[in-house]
Amino acid sequence: MRLNKIIRHALNMVLHAKLRSWLTILGIVIGVGAVISIVSLGETMQKQISSQLGDLGGDLLTLRAGASRASFFGPGREGGGGGASAVSTEDEIVLDKTDLQVLKSVSGIKSIDTQISGQADIYYVAEKGSASVVGVEEATWATVTTSKIAEGRMLGPADTNVIVVGGRIADGFFSRQVGLNQLITIEDRLFRIVGILDDTSSSIYMPIDSAYAILEDKDKDEFDTIIIQVKDEDAINSTMASIEYKLAQKRHVLGKKYDFTLTSNKAVQAQRSEMMGSMTTFLTAIAAVALLVGAVGIANTMFTSVLEKTKEIGIMKAIGARNSDILKIFLIHAALIGLIGGILGLALGYILSGILPSLMSSSGGGPFSRFGSGDAIISLNSVVLAIGISVIIGIVAGTIPAVQASKLKPVDALRYE
Amino acid sequence: MKDNNNRLPLVSLNDVWKIYRMGEVDVPALRGATVDIYKGEFVAIIGQSGSGKSTMMNMVGCLDMPSRGTVMLKSHDISKLSESDLSTLRGKAVGFIFQQYNLIQNMTAFENVMLPLEFLEIDEHEAQAKARKVLESVGLHDKMYHLPSQLSGGQQQRVSIARSLVTDPEIILADEPTGALDSVTGREVLSTLQTLWKKEGKTIIMVTHDLNLARYAQKHVELKDGKVVDIRENNNIIYSDKR
Ligand SMILES: Nc1ncnc2c1ncn2[C@@H]1O[C@H](COP(=O)(O)OP(=O)(O)OP(=O)(O)O)[C@@H](O)[C@H]1O
Ligand SMILES: [Mg+2]
Question: What does the angle CA B51 – CA B57 – CA B62 come to, to the nearest 5 degrees?
Fold first, then answer.
């Protein structure tokens, strides 16, 4: 029998057992949908993480006051987290000018950006809002930051009363768009926007001296964060070690628990990637189980179908069907269920992977918060893979029933009622 | 009537045994049946219920294999053919008509008739033309796209006759073709078979336990307890048309 006829007969079989076919297909749809959305979520997260920390961020170290907190999703991005400064103990632990002196004595450091951050009220035309303000060392920030400029310029040496704003401040924060060279009032001072970042943050970056004036709880010459750029990315570990040693010596914590935290972007990035990777693997495994259950469903449906069609198989054999014709009809029947399930599952997965990130971001915190909806990644790979795998699942699950059908003896099959 | 001595039989059963195993006991359905059927014959296989008529028929149609003895179909020993050769032989040389019609329920009359041609991979246009022609010849030109469930028993049997004819087989095998039909419709089916035999030279083998219907056939083969006990010419054939 020709292939087109075989496909037609197989399709007929799918269509004539509507409810059962659809239920079986549903099993595959759920499995494929779960796999697709989870894999896509994983890819989206990986991509976001690497774009956040970027290829540029590999040579950066972040120094904070306070002992290290075990946190995967914690620090690692300059100015992030809005004013999470050192944890106060009875004797407040801070980073100050002496630490900066120590850093300057370490060889292998290319530039240093001292930062403070906090919340501040901002006003534009007649509207008011609250945004995170980051004071940065205006001379070095541009070289150290991983942010990209979308419009205008970065901060530069000798800038005063100017700010660079995150993409959301320019578009979406106020009811009107805020453009370059517009004036914004922060607390009681007027600032001019010289640059808009290519991101979706609502942070405002300004020279650190201006920030001291605005963030009143910050003391002059004390810093929340110090971003260090090393000269040689390959020697980052030894540079880190010598920074830690010298700081510990100076702060008299040598041999004790350090009262500061030095992290490398690279390490944080690797840690997060690994974390995401194992989480994705775990979720994918769960989704794969769903897919397996779907496959069992196909096998079950096929066995039922063979039993139901026994008489028809006998008739077909009596009028000239070969074993291979019967085998092909049933295999393609199973493959079609897989194919339809795969295509619909792909659609479900696509919808889910649009919804999932925004669900996760609304639960707040973590790197998920940066995912907008609609920027889900579904690669061509996963499309081909999903459809290919579900067709293969169909064929594998359908093989035994199909062989069983093809091996039926014509007389026995004809006798079957 | 005809001299068969120097012709090869189309179907030849030689000492054919068929033994079914039912658990621990062997049930012999055929016990050394021997019969030759020649091209152009219209044979009625008669005998009581359980005498082995269907069993014999199934072997002639290559649907079943003998336990012992040889079944020759068109000079092929069916026990020695591969599965796919058997299917092809079955598809080309034999047309089946069953008591219960055995149409595929979710296919239209036309699709049912197309099916044997599809297994033989006949060109689509040619196949459609043949299917249409043969359905017209059994008087179903206006019922082609009906499902079996939308047809009467007699109409369904005509579809199944059309299906058996569409591949233009040499042999038509009919196992109790009128068993599910009333006597008038039954006689119509018999006259159709007779026409095929007389006008188209088909070889027809029909199983029946109704001796009245057997009178349409040219030759009677009588089975008893799995053995052929009598082969005789029917000297007073009923002709459905007197021409
Ligand atoms: N698949 C089978 N398994 C076991 N026994 C069988 C099988 N098929 C037939 N038989 C037995 O073989 C014998 C002959 O059966 P067969 O169907 O050939 O009879 P028949 O002459 O066609 O009868 P009927 O006129 O009732 O159709 C019967 O005794 C039957 O019980
Ligand atoms: Mg019978």
Answer: 140
Position B13 pLDDT exceeds 80 = yes
- Is A246 a member of any domain? no
Contact A325 B119 (CB under 8 A): yes
Closest chain A residue by Cα to residue B62: A318
Chain B touched by A288 (CB under 8 Å) = no
The total of structural domains in chain A comes to: 2
Write out the H or E segment, with its range, that includes residue A163. strand A162-165
Indicate if A281 and A404 belong to the same structural domain.
yes
User: Which amino acid type is present at position A162?
Assistant: V
In a domain, A150, yes or no: yes
Pocket of ligand 1 contains residue B1 by CB under 6 Å: no
Say which ligand is closest to the CA of A412.
Answer: 1
Residues A201 and A126 in one domain: yes
Structurally, chain B folds into a number of domains equal to: 1
Q: Which CATH number do you get for residue B132?
A: 3.40.50.300
Q: Is residue A39 part of a domain?
A: yes
Q: Which of residues 295-324 of A touch B (CB under 8 A)?
A: 311-312, 314-324
Q: Which amino acid is at A382?
A: S
Q: Mean pLDDT lowest for which of A148-157, A267-276, A365-374?
A: A365-374
For residue B229, give its domain range: 40-53+84-236
Inside any domain, residue B74: no
Residue B134's pLDDT is: 95
What would the pLDDT profile of A68-125 be if each residue is shown by its tens digit?
Answer: 755 444 444 444 334 444 444 446 788 888 999 999 988 889 999 999 999 999 999 8
Report if residue B59 sits inside a domain: no
Q: In what helix (H) or strand (E) does residue A183 lie, and over which residues does it extend?
A: strand A183-186
Pairing label, strands A225-230, A60-65 = antiparallel
B120 occurs within a structural domain: yes
pLDDT in tens, A322-337: 999 999 999 999 999 9
Percent of chain B with pLDDT over 70: 96
| Cβ <8 Å between A1 and B163 | no
A309 chain-B contacts, CB cut-off 8 A = none
Q: Give dist(CA A207, CA A90) in Å, integer.
A: 31
Which residue range(s) make up the domain with A140? 115-221
- Has residue B147 been placed in a domain? yes
Instruction: Let me know if residue A234 belongs to a domain.
Output: no
- The ipTM assigned to this model is 0.91
pLDDT per residue over B185-196, tens digit each?
Answer: 888 899 999 999
Verify that A283 and A396 share a domain, yes or no: yes
Q: List the Cα angle B136/B141/B143 in 5-degree steps.
A: 135
Residue of A329, A278, A348 lying closest to A35 (CA atoms): A348
Rounded to whole angstroms, how far apart are CA atoms A64 and A84?
10
Instruction: Return the amino acid letter for A27.
Output: G
A43 and A121, same domain (yes or no)? no
Instruction: Give tens-digit pLDDT for B71-126.
Output: 999 999 999 999 999 999 998 999 999 999 999 999 999 999 999 999 999 999 99
φ, ψ of residue B109 in degrees (nearest 5): -55, -45
Residue A172, pLDDT above cutoff 60: yes
